[in-house]
Amino acid sequence: MAKPNSRGALINYALRKLGAPVLEINLDDDQIHDAVDDTIQYFQQRHYDGIERMFLKYKFTQDDIDRGSAQGTDGVGIVTTTGIQTSNVTVTSNFYETSNFLAVPENILGVNRIFKFDSSSISGGMFSIKYQLFLNDLYYFNSVNLLQYAMTKTYLEDIDHLLTTEKQIRFNIRQDRLYLDIDWGAQQVDEFIVIDCFRALDTEQIYNDPFVKRYFTALIKKQWGSNLLKFRGTKLPGGIELNGREIYDEGVRELQALRDRSAMDYEMPPLDFIGWWIMALNPYFQQGTQGEQRLVQDLINEHLKIYGIEVTYIPRKFVNKATIIEEVTASKFDDNFAVEMYVNSYDGYSGAGDVLTKFGMSLRDEVELTVSKERFEEFIAPFMESSDDIELSSRPREGDLVFFPLGTRLFEIKFVEHEDPFYQLGKNYVYKLKCELFEYEDEVIDTSLEIIDTQVEDEGYIASLQLVGIGRTATALAVRGTGYIREIFLNNDGSGFTSPPVVSISTSPNGSSIANATAVAITTTRANVTSVEKILMTNAGFGYNTTPIITISGGGGSGAAATCSIETASQGIVRFNMTDNGVGFGTVPIVTISIPAGGIASDRAVGIASIGDAGAFKQVNSIFIENAGKGYTTNPTVTINDPETISGIGTYQFNEIVQGMRSGTQARVKSWDQDTAILLVSNVGVGGTIRGFFEGEDIKGLTSDALFSLSSLNKDNTTDKYNEGDIFESEADSIIDFTESNPFGNYWC
């Protein structure tokens, strides 16, 4: 794309940065043009690249002199009339003001001073006063010391400055008037004055400025979010909600960051302030120009790139804070930024070093690092500004981490020094970070860099979860009877059903409710016509001596009809009792029923399983009877195929979040042993969830989708480096038998 060189090109650039034309930017054309005007105004008034210093020459006219000399009584000056009306009298007063101003161009933003334009020179002729003075000065060059001559000249100039005061001027950008408090009557027509001023650049020259493009884009984003705030809470199809608040807040943050940067690096102080501050010092020796500051910053950046090392900066994010004293109770580190830093303690780690305590060896190493202020503010801070859980993003913060690759160690920033070296050329250029070796306290560290994340793999409170496969085989028992329905035959499948019809079977002569046969209809749809596919018995009944009548009704259709056959002498399967519904069935399992003793294959009963939801996976609800069989003198063996997920699903990933499907408890994976099915987790209850898993619930990996069932939970810290009491006790028992009353005395004691 071409660089923006016009108003329209700048607008198109900003809209593309916000996502157009892929996204629709909800702004009116007038709102966009207002943002352009606001951007140009801010840039010209607050950014040093938006103005240029000018020396404008102006020639006095007779009208200027007459107007400046007028006192307001002759109709030339400014007269202000005021009046007060009382009960019995009206008081009117006239205030006279001179018109001693020049109308300056509207693009003039500020005026420093004015001075007379002196066109005289040595070449003006021998009768010129300056010519004669130079002749006199030439004599002194040959007769006196040059230093003495220079001091004399400076002394005379100081006297002239005291006797001839600076011309008093007043200027206001809104009026475009330059007031000259001079003796206008003493001025001459066609006499020149020079105005030292600042002029705003033409807009065509600033459309491609990086600050203008970023500032305008941020203004557009803020206005876009403000427009969408009206629709806050409005839900779109699919449950999507307009995020006007997020867009608005992001625009506000970007604008504030740009304004802060402008105030620190790009903004010129008010002109009045320049005159007050600089004039207290030598005006010819500035205390650090922007060019000098830029040079020092570039040299520091280059030095750090040559002699520094590449570390990883990890900002601290707040997860939970106490409501009373605002204490941070939970933190996470899930970002990483590569940046160069200089090691100040080049001869080794500082601090107390390695200290032997009663709890073992304690490492108390410290290191001092230096990072470029500009590099941090331009390459790290902008990415941190968009995080709501980072309160201070403009500079390194105490509590942030730095990964030191030379020692493969994590250091925590304890103090940030931003005034050392102290304001060289009026500015600070680096941050000095005083760091101590990081002590892990169950913080969430997930930077996506394995070399960093594994530093705390065995640190903190770690619980052990013994997992098993989530699947479980279903079991059932068959119940025998006589006088039962052997099989139901579908004579007519009917049509037009919108739901399964009701199957009614005449009651058994036995008189018991459990003796009545029951069945359900299974429907199917072919060529957009829904009909009955088959009828399966849930209870074959018993005690029937005549064939019962089967009636099919309801379901929105008609025409379905069925008959059945019965067995009055032989025993068959009349129903199934589920002893274990199992779990983990993705598809309907096959049910196998053994052949009756001494029978043939055609005597075998046929059952069909029915599955339903049971949490994340399905279980066997019941077994339908398709054929009750015959000739069973003993209960047959009922076999239901194993579920597909009996061994569990997937592999848990390091540092991912796992969640209990019933308790809602979350934790972070430390390690996973596929062979033993032991899952080590930390940060139990991360994210404010319930702090505790339920035995028997399914544990799901939110990233890997791994799923196993929790058999048992060991809440003891499995990696506590100080929990070695049992080891010491067992080793001591092998040396001294403490079961004796006095192991150090004689046997009779």
Summed up:
The protein has 749 residues and is α+β, with helices and mostly antiparallel strands. It contains 13 helices and 36 strands.
Describe the structure using short key phrases:
749 residues; alpha+beta; six-stranded antiparallel barrel
Structure description:
With 749 residues, the protein is of the alpha+beta class. The chain has five domains: 7-48 and 206-278, no CATH class; 51-200, no CATH class; 290-460, no CATH class; 461-470 and 648-749, no CATH class; 475-640, no CATH class. 22% of the residues lie in helices and 34% in strands. The chain is built from 13 helices and 36 strands. The strands form twelve sheets. Strands 9-12-14-17-16-15 form a six-stranded antiparallel barrel. It has a six-stranded antiparallel barrel with strand order 19-34-33-32-35-36. A hairpin with a 4-residue loop joins strand 6 (168-172) and strand 7. The longest helix has 23 residues, at 244-266.
